[in-house]
């Protein structure tokens, strides 16, 4: 069961990678970043698929998307200089709490 959670976390991190490299691909016009986007997507989906062999989809998918969402927000702010309002940060924290809550309440 622990390996499934590890696969899921890594899959979520690859979701952050492909989302970030997709932006850097400038509409898929920069081939190096386009290739990294595709590789990141493949890795993310393959690892999500491995995780769902053990974890239920109703748990794995929201955690995967949550990791990707929070990670993309952090990359946007840190790397791309995005600005978020205080209220937006409140919701980001609530999303993070929700992801942790899903993990904690699954009993795995």
TrEMBL record:
Keyword set, alphabetical order: Cell membrane, Membrane, Transmembrane, Transmembrane helix, Transport
Superkingdom: Bacteria
InterPro entries per UniProt: EmrE-like, Small_drug/metabolite_transptr, Small_multidrug_res
Gene Ontology CC annotations of this record: plasma membrane
Localization of this protein: Cell membrane
Membrane topology: Multi-pass membrane protein
MF GO annotations: transmembrane transporter activity
Membrane-crossing segments per the record: 29-48, 60-80, 86-105
Family: Belongs to the drug/metabolite transporter (DMT) superfamily. Small multidrug resistance (SMR) (TC 2.A.7.1) family.
Record PANTHER family: GUANIDINIUM EXPORTER, SMR FAMILY PROTON-DEPENDENT DRUG EFFLUX TRANSPORTER SUGE
Protein name according to UniProt: Uncharacterized protein
Native organism taxonomy: Bacteria, Bacillati, Bacillota, Bacilli, Lactobacillales
């Amino acid at each position: 069961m622990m390996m499934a959670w590890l696969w899921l976390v890594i899959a979520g991190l690859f979701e952050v990678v492909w989302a970030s490299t997709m932006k850097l691909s400038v509409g898929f016009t920069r081939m190096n970043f386009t290739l990294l986007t595709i590789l990141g997507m493949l890795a993310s989906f393959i690892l999500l698929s491995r995780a769902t062999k053990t974890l239920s989809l109703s748990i794995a998918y929201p955690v995967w998307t949550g990791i990707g969402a929070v990670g993309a927000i952090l990359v946007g702010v840190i790397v791309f200089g995005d600005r978020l309002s205080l209220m937006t940060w409140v919701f980001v924290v609530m999303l993070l709490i929700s992801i942790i809550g899903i993990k904690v309440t699954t009993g795995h």
